[in-house]
Design brief:
single chain, Aspartate Aminotransferase, domain 2, 17 strands, Aspartate Aminotransferase, domain 1, four-stranded antiparallel sheet, about 450 residues, alpha/beta
């Protein structure tokens, strides 16, 4: 076949079996996850159609080392103002002028900030993994890779949160360089204000990882840690903030912004995946318009899901605190087969969750912990509300408590999901608009 010729997609798939396999796996995944599943992994979300279409742009082929208007490459006369615009939009949402959107993930954002304020051998106070810290906060991840000593903050097991009095005393005694808050199992806010006051008396920086709750902070459901005394917030952009995968850093002070910026590039990021900027910008505008409503419904759904699961017979964490104030719900499934088995059974019913360590698990339980972690941010994005949370709890009971055949429950899930195929809290566009944008993005046809 001559270069540039195409007999059409169907013929290409028959001619090239490898291409057919790649195509089918990709299409099957997309249809399965977007039409047939209940996605409850708390670190995931879906973009609006407009954001997705603008994500598919020429900038995915381009490089932009450095900061806007101070690049090491040419060809960025549109990328530079776009990046500045996205920084401004995110800054408006976070009420600060100092936002860096170059990190390509929450982990590279964390690494950049850790490196800016520590050197090998320095001490960092971090919540233990069992109490929710992200692996990048620990000696097993980015912190350890940088040679920083991890010291675990004390945890109040009754409330699954940092013990304020003991933590303040530890800060005073250890005198760490950084104190890291936030987590990947994050049901209630960490005590930012109290720990920031103590940290600042010993010259430590407070870094609050809001990756999971960025949308809740922007939606004013959770307080902005920068307003509570945190020096820096780090985040990803694809959890309760429903944008493309990526990261960001925001600071209170210009001097911190500049110091961290010198680390982001060239130490942790070279090119920063420019095609995601447009989709991040679209999502930022969506959150300016619908962010508060979206965040409030996420939390209402999480509380409703927790209450429904408890009524169905599940052991739901932190009942005495109202279960959750975030998008997350934690279940103890130790008596139902533990986390790994339960997550696999639910997946067979097209209910996607993840196993997760709980505060009383042992370090060796990491491969088969006692918990499941559920999130409502994507269910909410598809338009589900409190009544749907009750139905989802019943599906989960059928699989894990009633021990019904997951295949039987799967058919119910697929039928249920047919009513929720349109993105909410985001821009709607017509099919004609979709075709027009695809022509532009694929063929540059204006």
């Amino acid at each position: 076949m001559e270069y540039g010729e195409s007999p059409g997609l169907d013929a290409l798939l028959q001619l090239y079996p490898d291409l057919k396999e790649v195509y089918e796996l990709t299409v099957n995944h997309t249809v399965w996850r977007k039409r047939h599943c209940l996605n409850m992994i708390p670190s995931e979300n879906v973009m609006s159609p407009l954001a997705m279409l603008l994500y598919l742009n020429d900038a995915m082929h381009r490089y932009a080392e450095g900061k806007p208007y101070k690049r090491f490459y040419q060809g960025l006369i549109y990328v530079d103002p776009l990046e500045v615009k996205v920084q401004k939009l995110m800054g408006e949402l976070l009420e600060t002028e100092y936002v860096d959107v170059r990190p390509i993930s929450g982990t590279t954002a964390n690494g950049s900030v850790f490196r800016a304020y520590t050197k090998p051998g320095d001490k960092a106070l971090v919540a233990p993994v069992q109490a929710g810290a992200h692996v990048s906060h620990t000696r097993f991840g980015t912190l350890g890779a940088l040679g920083i000593e991890q010291i675990e903050l004390p945890v109040d097991l009754e409330n699954w949160n940092i013990d304020i009095d003991k933590a303040v005393k530890m800060i005073e005694e250890v005198k760490p360089k950084i104190v890291t808050l936030g987590g990947s199992l994050y049901l209630f806010p960490h005590p930012t204000k109290e720990l920031a006051e103590a940290a600042h008396t010993v010259g430590a920086k407070v870094i609050h990882d809001v990756a999971h709750v960025l949308g809740l902070v922007i939606g004013k459901v959770w307080d902005n840690p920068l307003k509570l005394g945190a020096d820096i917030i780090t985040s990803s952009t694809h959890k309760t903030f429903p944008g493309p995968q990526g990261g960001l850093i925001a600071t209170r002070l210009e001097e911190d912004y500049k110091e961290i910026g010198k680390i982001v590039f060239p130490m942790f990021v070279s090119n920063h995946h420019l095609h995601r900027l447009a989709a991040t910008g679209v999502t930022a505008v969506e959150m300016k318009i619908w962010g508060r409503d979206y965040a409030q419904q996420i939390v209402r759904n999480a509380k409703a899901l927790a209450e429904a699961l408890a009524s169905e017979g599940f052991k739901v964490a932190l009942e005495h605190l109202g279960y959750t104030s975030s998008h997350q719900v934690a279940l103890d499934v130790a008596k139902l087969g533990r986390g790994t088995k339960c997550a696999v059974l639910l997946e067979q019913a097209n209910i996607i969750v993840n196993k997760n360590m709980l505060p009383y698990d042992r370090p060796e339980d990491v491969k088969d912990p006692s918990g499941l972690r559920l999130g409502t941010q994507e269910l909410t994005r598809w338009g589900m509300k409190e009544s749907e949370m009750k139905e989802i709890a019943r599906f989960m009971r059928m699989v894990l408590i009633d021990k019904k055949d997951p295949g039987e429950v799967r058919s119910k899930v697929v039928e249920f999901r047919k009513e929720f195929l349109e993105i909410h809290y985001g821009f709607k566009i017509t099919r004609e608009d979709e075709v027009r944008l695809l022509k532009i993005m694929l063929h540059a046809e204006m």
